[in-house]
Design brief:
The complex is a heterodimer.
Chain A lengths: L2 E13 L7 H13 L5 H4 L2 E2 L10 E13 L3 E5 L6 H8 L7 E7 L2 E4 L12 H11 L4 H15 L14 H13 L5 E4 L8 H17 L3 E5 L3 H7 L2 E6 L2 E7 H12 L5 E3 L8 E6 L7 E3 L4 E7 L6 E10 L5 E11 L5 E7 L7 E10 L5 E14 L26
Parallel strand pairs in A: 2-3, 4-8, 4-9, 6-7, 7-8, 13-19
Antiparallel strand pairs in A: 1-3, 1-5, 9-10, 11-12, 12-14, 14-17, 15-16, 15-18, 18-19
Helix pairs in contact in A: 4-5, 4-6, 5-6
Chain B lengths: L18 E5 L9 H6 L1 H16 L8 H20 L8 H23 L1 H4 L1 H4 L8 H30 L13 H23 L4 H14 L13 H8 L2 H14 L6 H26 L7
Helix pairs in contact in B: 2-7, 3-4, 4-7, 4-8, 4-9, 4-11, 7-8, 8-9, 8-11, 8-12, 11-12
The chains are: A alpha/beta, B mainly alpha.
Chain lengths: 412, 292
């Protein structure tokens, strides 16, 4: 396989704070040290870019010594938290800005899509804007003419093609803009999170088109997104950036897992040992990595400990599951026959392939069916599901509900 | 209803034909003129965009191109007529119209080019194309406007000729295309220098707007070189725009000052400005997104 893009030691420094006052004196200082044969005084004091920590200098390395190779025909997902350097990397690859250090070599025409509808002019008609936008993205006029009908069909705005785009609904605007970009004839396609706009139907259409581009036509695709479902569906390989460095790269599933790990915090454990009869002493939701983030195809294990002051005593224990909007999804209950005094351990398992991506919280209680409540702990623990594999994963953050139900679909 | 789209599965282009490199260091003289040529279609589409969007939703449409020079001419005729400033014995309105038409073109080129990075920062920040395309499109768009205003000037010339005024075009009129080209190049060159500097220091943008107005008075638009006090003649002649406007008037109206020495000087000045402007523009272009 030949190489489409090879990056060697790419670094990019940014200056924080205001640019303007002090720039002139800084430029003079820089120039003097350059003349005297010394390095740039403002680049040396740079540090790792972590936006959550206060730094000592106002130069920050958005990318630091990035090395990677991308083979032609690969679809590569670039993931990372906000501020990890994803957009900077894309900007450098699409030549919007240049690296502070390093070298990138590439083979093939590059088309980059950091934003849909760049250069659209509101006063011009859809037709004029297709030509203008196509030309800005690097197409020749005859290439656009050749694809013109295809573009209009894909966008589905045939009726409005001679209307100024300022009269378009925002959805139509985005459709038209993406359609132009999707029909670029380039060997390498660089796509930023432009799919965050548009309705779910159009989003999946765009994903489909991008999948076609990489699988069917053998083009190289670089894709940055926070929609992990889309990344895992579209990309075979991934690059994980964190604080301007490559933390992991390779097979997309491995990289997505690594991404989850940097996001993880240790799971919350509820503990209270001074309780009365049937009091809840302990609640823990944890996977093998001792965190509370599960993937869609994991079983969710809830560990409980309940006190008992009486032997041969019966009660019920129940867990209620809420989603992130505090909607109660379901309740699960078990009947307990307590034989001896002391703490009793339980494990409740929520089956895998049930809960879709999102944050969930639980209530735990011990009670008698038509009697009193012994203990009720509201919002006692929570967990999170990361979903790359369910049929709903591609819809990203759209509200598709919380539960995956494998319904039957027949064509009749 | 949207139809099912047949996706063409054409073979993808040859990877090896488009080899590229991105580095932090780039030669000062790598002006990417070949890239710019590849994007020539974009240049024409941008010119078209400027022209079409200019008169969209206006009643008078392209007529607006006429109104500004016409009114300026009327005002100058009154104001400077009262002051009794010489016009090389040409009809006063015709004299001013000639100067204004030529000067406007240069002034538009330089002021619009000088804000090119600021005005297009959202496009430049999102997609790469040779940045030189933008200032070039400005200069060509303004050429359309200049052409329309030139028609007005020619109509006025004809009017005075029929009236029997002494309007005598001479053979130097063949220099006209060269004069226009030089004005475009000078405006482009100076504008690019300013635009490159304004990405960091916005102060210069203010300087340009009123600087251009001031320099107009030293560009033989209002006071012909022949009426300039001898003491200051060298100063006016050092201004290439004064030389170009005198040449323009000399060719069309037969009055004014023309010398080959001055003309060659203006040409050399323009070429040097344009080359340094292009070099500076290209140097700033690659990183300006970070500072604008």
């Amino acid at each position: 396989m030949s190489i489409a893009i090879k990056a060697e030691n790419i670094s990019k420094a940014y200056q924080l704070g205001e640019i303007g006052t002090g720039t002139l004196s800084r430029d003079i200082e820089r120039w003097i040290s350059k003349v005297r044969g010394k390095g740039d005084p403002f680049l040396k004091i740079g540090e790792i870019n972590d936006r959550t920590q206060k730094g000592n200098s106002d130069i920050v390395w958005s990318l630091k010594d990035i090395n990677f190779e991308i083979e032609r025909g690969d679809a590569v997902g670039i993931i990372g938290r906000n501020g990890a350097g994803k957009s900077t990397l894309l900007k450098i690859l699409s030549r919007v800005t240049s690296p502070t250090k390093g070298l990138i070599k590439g083979n093939g025409r590059v088309a980059s899509l950091l934003e849909v509808g760049t250069g659209f002019h509101p006063e011009l008609t859809g037709r004029d804007n297709i030509y203008l936008n196509g030309a800005i993205l690097g197409m020749r006029k005859y290439e656009i003419s050749k694809k013109f009908d295809e573009i209009i069909d894909f966008a589905g705005v045939e009726r409005y093609i001679n209307t100024p785009v300022k009269r378009y609904s925002s959805g139509m605007y985005v459709r038209l803009a993406f359609a132009v970009a999707a029909h670029l004839e380039s060997e390498i396609l660089i796509v930023d999170e432009v799919l965050a706009v548009g309705d779910a139907e159009f989003q999946s259409k765009c994903l489909g088109k991008m999948g076609e581009v990489s699988k069917g036509e053998g083009r190289t695709v670089l894709f940055v997104s926070h929609n992990m479902g889309a990344v895992s569906q579209l990309c075979k390989k991934g690059i994980l950036l964190n604080s301007g460095k490559i933390l992991d790269s390779g097979k997309v599933n491995k990289v997505l897992e690594a991404y989850n790990n940097i996001n993880k915090s240790a799971s919350l454990v509820y503990e209270n040992y001074k309780v009365g009869n049937c009091g809840i002493m302990y609640v823990k939701i944890q996977n093998e990595d001792k965190t509370s983030i599960f993937t869609f195809d994991n079983e969710i294990k809830i560990y409980l400990k309940v006190n008992s002051d009486q032997a041969n005593f019966s009660y019920h224990i129940g867990i209620a599951i809420y989603d992130q909007w505090n909607r109660k999804l379901f309740t699960t209950v078990s009947k307990v026959k307590n034989e001896k005094v002391g703490a009793k351990d339980f494990l409740a398992v929520i089956p895998k392939n049930l809960l879709l991506s999102g944050k969930y919280s639980i209530d735990v209680s011990t009670f008698m069916p038509n009697g009193g409540v012994y203990d009720y702990k509201k919002n006692v623990s929570d967990f999170e599901i990361a979903d790359y594999t369910s049929p709903m994963a591609i819809y990203g953050n759209a509200d598709v509900g919380a539960i995956n139900v494998p319904c039957q679909w027949l064509e009749i | 209803m949207t139809k099912k789209v047949e996706v063409s599965a054409e073979p993808v282009g040859d990877y090896s034909t488009h080899q590229w490199e991105i580095t932090s260091q780039r030669s000062l003289f790598d002006l990417k003129l070949k890239d710019t040529w590849e994007y020539r279609d974009l240049l024409w589409l941008l010119v078209r965009r400027d022209f079409v969007s200019f008169y969209k939703q206006t009643i008078l449409g392209p007529l607006w191109f006429f109104i500004q020079p016409l009114f300026t001419t009327i005002i100058y005729t009154f104001v400077f007529g009262m002051a009794g400033i010489g016009t090389d014995s040409l009809p006063r309105p015709l004299f001013y119209m000639a100067g204004i038409t030529a000067w406007n073109y240069f002034a538009d080129c330089i002021t619009k080019t000088s804000t090119v990075f600021k005005d297009n920062s959202n496009i430049f920040g999102k997609v790469y194309f040779p940045r030189l395309i933008m200032p070039l499109s400005i200069v060509i768009s303004n050429l359309v406007r200049f052409g329309v205003q030139l028609l007005l000037f020619l109509a006025m010339m004809l009017f005075y000729y029929v009236q029997g005024a002494k309007v005598e075009p001479n053979s130097y009129i063949v220099l006209f295309p060269v004069v226009v080209l030089l004005m475009a190049m000078l405006g482009l060159g100076l504008g690019m220098i300013v635009s490159a500097l304004t990405t960091k220091y916005r102060d210069l943008a203010f300087l340009v707007t009123f600087g251009v107005q001031l320099v107009m008075y030293a560009s033989a638009v209002i006071i012909p070189l022949s009426s300039t006090p001898t003491k200051y003649k060298w100063l006016i002649q050092a201004n290439p725009m004064a030389v170009l406007i005198e040449t323009f008037r000399y060719g069309f109206l037969g009055k004014g000052t023309f010398s080959w020495d001055a003309f060659l000087y203006a040409s050399a000045f323009t070429l040097i400005t344009l080359s340094s402007g292009t070099i500076i523009f290209n140097k700033v272009e690659k990183n300006f997104v970070d500072t604008i």
